[in-house]
Amino acid sequence: MIISEPVDVTHVLLDGSSFGAAEVSELQRAVARNPHDVRQKCQTLRERISSGQGNDRSLTALGIALHMLSDHRPAVDALQKVSGNGFADFYRGRALQSLERFDDAVEAFSAAEKNGYDSVNALLARAGAIRLAGRIDEAEELVKANARNAVTRADYSYQMGGILSDRGDTYGAIEYFERAVDMDPHHTAALFRLAALNASFGNDEEAISLYERSLSRPPFYLGALLNLGLLYEDAERYDAAAFCFRRVLEFNPLHDRAHLYLKDIEAAGDMFYDEDAMRKQREEEQVLSTPIADFELSARSRNCLDRLGITTLGDLTRITEPELMSSKNFGETSLKEINEMMESRGLTVGQDVVEKKAAPQQLRREDLSDAQRAIFDNPVTDLNLSVRARKAVSRLGMATIGELLNRTPDELLGIRNFGVTSLNEIRQKLAEMGVSLRND
């Protein structure tokens, strides 16, 4: 995120004689640097307006500032009091679109065009609101009908990318989004879409770079801050992740997910990665892979093990003593010799078999009801998990819901960067389908 030089927010919001593109640029820098300061000045401006000292300039400045602070409802309230001002109409449309009031946004962008705002930008913004309202064909017709005048604008490529994306043409959409960014390196929406697509493809480093660029000027997508925080967390950049979640809370102090993610980050030392446990696991794996040939065994014992295909200490943990004794020419002397060899490395014959018998029974398709069986082989993607939970599940290589059902809560909590928030999310999604994790 670019932190700009200080801005005289008092002059921009309270003392200036006009409010246009130059003031918007200054305001963007101020919000990027210190949203709390801008919010305080907005409160002063509100008080002036309430006391009768405000005018259309004051209302426009207040509305646009609130929109950049992601306070879209009060932004609309302020901007709709300004009449005949295309600039105010355009940002009213932006705020309405952020509130998913797409039809109202279409009306606001049309008013902006009629009231003197840049007609091409207003038209492209109107097409975007039409597309978001679900009328893709209408949006495409409007964009293409005005291609001659609009094709050199970054937002033309962005809107075409959105249309292709909505139709399922991901790679065509990427090409248009990249074209939009080539024309405008700070095109927030195009950068956000490219970042999300790269994250979905597993290109985390590129996604981080794109999210960072998308946050170079407000209004910020809070989703970009959240997703960037999760990617930082996956990369074990916990301080950067915490910064992103705190930044979300600066804009929306009641944001539940940001609070939960920040709580997980603050517990990172205990929750996310147990280095001692991982080192112990690697040491155990190394012992289990030790070849039998490294030990001085009698010819009889060695030949018996060769016939059974046992070549490592790990192989001996997966066979029982009775199975060894049933082998031809294998007697008590050989068993004693092998037990002594295993004990020297802290192992016992058949220990893996015993552990598996003690483990909880795996869930089988035949044990499920018809309704549960119907979802057993469905892909995990059907759960529509958040970025964090989806990445954690993918680390275990689980592709189906059935594979997830055979995991216990403790097994999931043992995954790096997997916290209680993600566990509860998965539990809720499975409960909605009438199933649950093993032992849950």
Summarize the topology.
Blueprint: H1 9-15, H2 21-33, H3 35-50, H4 56-68, H5 72-79, H6 86-98, H7 102-114, H8 119-132, H9 136-145, H10 147-150, H11 154-166, H12 170-183, H13 188-200, H14 204-214, H15 222-234, H16 238-251, H17 256-266, H18 268-271, H19 275-288, H20 299-307, H21 313-317, H22 321-325, H23 332-343, H24 351-358, H25 370-376, H26 387-395, H27 401-405, H28 409-413, H29 420-432
Helix pairs in contact: 1-3, 2-3, 2-4, 3-4, 4-5, 4-6, 5-6, 6-7, 6-8, 7-8, 8-9, 8-11, 9-11, 11-12, 12-13, 13-14, 14-15, 15-16, 16-17
Q: What name goes with the CATH superfamily of the largest domain?
A: Tetratricopeptide repeat domain
Order of helices and strands: HHHHHHHHHHHHHHHHHHHHHHHHHHHHH
Structural class: mainly alpha
- CATH top level label of the largest domain: Mainly Alpha
Low-confidence sequence ranges? 269-274
Mean pLDDT: 84
Bin the helical content: 55-70%
Domains (count):
4
CATH architecture descriptor text of the largest domain: Alpha Horseshoe
Q: Biggest β-sheet, characterized?
A: none
User: What's the number of helices?
Assistant: 29
Q: What is the radius of gyration computed over CA atoms, rounded to a whole number of angstroms?
A: 31 Å
Number of strands: 0
State the CATH topology of the largest domain. Answer: Serine Threonine Protein Phosphatase 5, Tetratricopeptide repeat
**CA-based shape:** elongated
The share of residues in extended strands comes to under 5%
Distance N to C terminus:
42 Å
